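Work Package 3 (structural annotation) set out to generate three-dimensional models for the target panel prioritized at the project kickoff. During this period the team completed the workflow that converts sequence records into discrete structure tokens, so that structures can be stored uniformly alongside our sequence database. As a representative example, we reproduce one entry of 698 residues exactly as it appears in the project archive.
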Amino acid sequence: MQSGVSPLHGRAVDFIRGIMSGQMVGAENYGVVRGDYNYDFSVRLEGGAAFSNTGILVASANERKAESGSELPLGIKCTWKRRILDASSSSSSSSSLAAEGLLVEIAGISTNMYQISADDIGCKIVVEARLADPNHLHYRGVAIGEIGPFQLDPSTRRSLDNSIGAGGSRFPVTFYKKENEPKQNYMLHVTSDEIKVIQPGMTERFDREISITYSGDYPRVLIHPLDTLKFKLLVDSSTEMHFGSLSRQSRDLIALTIRCFHSRRHIATAALLEQVFSNPINHGGMLNTEDYQAAQLDLCLYTDRLRGELIRQLETRIAIEKQYHKIANEKTFLDDQLHDTITSFTGMIQDLQDQVTTNESAQGGPGVPTDHTSASRLNPDPFFHAATSVPLKKYENLQQENTHLKIELEEQRRQILQEKHKAKLAGNPFGDMGFGSNSSGGAGTSKIEQELQRLKEENRRLLRSQEPSNAEMRRLRIDNDQILQEREELVRRLERADREKAELSSNFVYVKGEYDKLQNRMSSPSGGGSGMNNFTVGGSASSSTSPFGDPFSISAGVSPGLGGGEHSSSAGGRSYRALQEERNRLAQRVEQLTQDAEKAKTSQDQGMERVMTSNARLLEEKDRLQREVERVSRLYADAVNHAAATSAGMGGYGSSDELQQQVRTLQVDSLKKDEKIRVLESENASLKTRIRKLASVT
């Protein structure tokens, strides 16, 4: 190519020559074929942009129409190889067959189709085709086709630039532990320092991850030659992990991102610059003008990437400046508050000092000299009377507190002066002195604040979850009181029924005894008449011993003979029937009372069972809440320890007071919650005691 012609014009001429000499038809890209064969053979790229990694290579063999009169396809067996080009051969045209480079066979593929992947970027693909039937009558030979080199498609290139510029990216993948086991959803986090294989849990706290650092030979990514989604990650010489991506583009992007970060980590920058800007023909000299102009596109892309990184760094700088100004304003505000506090305490101490002086002068009387009073005001030493020991002790305590506050004020002023001095030395908030520890302190403070906020939310959630249990406990307590009242009422009714039953039983026994006596008197043959005469003669005495004396006395007085005996027998039969009716009525009454008592006992047992079930449920809820409170207490203790450690590490920057205040607030909240838990436990214990008493009574 002449020196006056631009490289772009030369490449266009080479491309047109390739079209004229090759077999490019329509929108299909054909490769160059050669070899000793007597059939029609072609290699073409289908799908995707021109020579991009999204297409499919198809090798086809047909009969020659001039010989057989048809173009029927022939079965072929293909061997695919990858030609790795160096810098000089990659810049040559695609139609050149004399390109030098390492030829590597792609194992596992013998079909006439091949999927372009990220392994083929910057390489040419060579295919050797033989007939599937080696004993064919008319056709023979080996055909060789070559096509390429291939490059990234624009969308994958933009995604790769963004991932490298951002310092890493996350890719959702599927993990294949074994072929017959179901796949699992994982997350692959590729950064410039390491690769993290993350197994998601229920929440982000329960995620499990494996970190893989970059070494000289590992990790390596092997792309599956047949499946467009699968790839293999070699962690070391004995460990490998099988993954599947969501798409073909995502798989290529994962492989290229890992390889770029790996190369940037373990290939020296000087060697890269020497390889890029040196001319191997001239023994280390600079490249010629044509190659340098051809590489302007790569330099522009690299410049855009650096511009993006610069913009991100500027945004980070602005954010850090805002944080620095915020911290400075907070320090100023705290300084003003401290000054106001010291002023107010100084005024209070002065008032107390005047009050002590006034009391001393009033107790000293007229004999106390004035110079002693002024001396006591200036130097409050213990020269007072014993009666003033209490206000003097209070005054001494206030004076000690004033001394401590003055010391703290001097310490704060010294720290402020140190910060101002560091800021003057640095000239900006990004100086080398002091800002790194301040930013780390701010980060630690933000982490502690987030942890404290999370603990507060956890406590609120526990209180909200405890409210239904409290309402349920109150309702069960009301039900228990009602059941106890019903039980007492049933016990009273049962006692009353027992008394009625005993009274009826005694009445029945008495009536039956009298009836037996009557039957004995009526059945005696010799004592009937004399008995009647006795009733007639001494009716008053007989009536006093027998409850049925009046009818017998009347019958004896009317007919004291055989007729009087028949009349007394009929009266005794009526009395017997009346007694039987009364007995039946009492038996029915006793049976009804027994049924009522059994119903009351059944209802009481059911109520007791409900109370015991509710108590068991409350005990389970109490145990669960106790476990939750213990877990929150452990989290709170960890947060307090972390806060104490962080505040100890951040001493001198004004944030320890806020942390201590927040820790004290959390301690007070924890004490309140512990007290509430103890009250609930005491109430639950009293409820258990009442239930045990109820069970023992039953």
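The chain has a mean pLDDT of 74.
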